[in-house]
Amino acid sequence: MFLFRNLVIEMIVHMYWDFPYLFNELKKGIASTLKKGHRDIQGIGIDTWGFDFGLITKDNQLLGNPFAYRDSRTDGIIERAFELLPQNRFYELTGIQFLQFNSVFQLLCMVEQENSLLRIADKMLFMPDLLNFFLTGEKTIEYSIASTSQMLNARTKTWEPEIFRLLGLAEELVLAIAEPGTIIGKLLPEVARETGSNKIDVIAPASHDTGSAVVAVPAQNGNWAYLSSGTWSLLGIETDNPIINEKSLNFNFTNEGGVNGKIRFLRNTMGLWLLQRCMYQWEVSGEKITYEQLPTLVNSARPFKCIINPDDKSFLNPPDMLSAIVNFCQKTGQSVPENKGEFVRCILESLALKYRYIIDIINLFKEKPVEVLHIVGGGSQNELLNQFTSNATGIPVVAGPSEATALGNVIVQAIAKKQLSSVEEGRSLIANSFDLKHYSPKDRQQWKETYQKVKRLCI
Questions:
Q1: Over the stretch 81-110, which tens digit does the pLDDT of each residue have?
Q2: Which candidate, 33, 93, 215, 421, has a CA 20 to 30 Å from the CA of 111?
Q3: Distance between CA atoms of 199 and 187, rounded to whole angstroms?
Q4: Which domains does the chain carry?
Q5: Whole-prediction pTM value?
Q6: In angstroms, rounded to a whole number, what is the distance separating the alpha carbons of residues 273 and 279?
Q7: Are 392 and 447 within 8 A, CB to CB?
Q8: What does the alpha-carbon distance between residue 66 and residue 106 come to, in Å, rounded to a whole number?
Q9: 18, 209, 360, 443: which is the annotated catalytic residue?
Q10: Annotation marks residue 209 as catalytic
């Protein structure tokens, strides 16, 4: 495995991704894999986070570095957008959860600010599509990543003209949608030479990382839900058709694209970002805490001293996460965390209770309630959070695999190359190949009572 850091670059009050660096590291990863003896590579598939995009000129030049979704320029943009298109109409068309960094709102900011790049842009490509383009020279936009933009019609799965009229942009800025499993093209000759490779096929998996992660959920049958757990938490179910009604709008649920025509009906909520930022602050102050130390810290802290709403706007990108948590507790009339153990316990308990709230909502849309929760992604290794989640939800939790996104990516590639017959076969293969950890609910009465007390904070 070839790992590299992906850092946000701050320049003149804005936040950007360093795209040339990312592309160069991608090429290094290909070269490193080949040097390790893996010469018979059958395909390369790229998935990334959603929302962010780059702009390309007619002569195939990248216009600047893509904005990072946590950039503050979109503060207040949703309210301004609703003045142009009512909220219920927005949702009826797209079925997507309202998040201020959705692509449509990023574009609206650029339109409002008369951004000069938009005037000379020929095409807009989302992050994985942008990387694919510079690998192959072929411009495509894959369905699952496009669905995060809030610019697709959820039912037709094509670009929604009314959204483009809202933005005052021509639909020619985008391309026809490619399905997951599309073979985009082969590596450009110059990329092949630089990496020492052959002209390998580049294949579009579910290019949204959560889309790939859901493909790798090792569920065989039954009423299951998934939680893709990492910096963000994406908790939901697979459906055959989008669920778009007043109830799903009120609960701010999203209908994102999946593989084989599936819809990922889910709620995107804050995840381990809260803990990551606290640990970063402690490290900067010279008090580095490792993940191995967390159980000891948590066990030393009193349960349920304070609970936060992970989705409060104050936690999106505060300069000081510790202070943001303290301020939220004070604002809501709670005791404040006073040491590291209390901060960690507050975060993990709050996330677990938020998951309980979201599953309760999901059950409103199902004939039968969710019976088991599959947690995949890096957060599946957090045993404390997994156990708290089982306690809070009252259902069994199955954790793993941690590298679900990469595995789901590979499954779609393998189907495209006729090495696997279906997603179901891929899931069965994963279930039989990895050690999955099982958690059963504990301390149910205490968690139930606490949830009823703090439920208002979860909304």
A1: 999 999 999 999 999 999 999 999 999 999
A2: 93
A3: 5
A4: 8-203 (3.30.420.40), 208-459 (3.30.420.40)
A5: 0.92
A6: 10
A7: yes
A8: 11
A9: 209
A10: yes
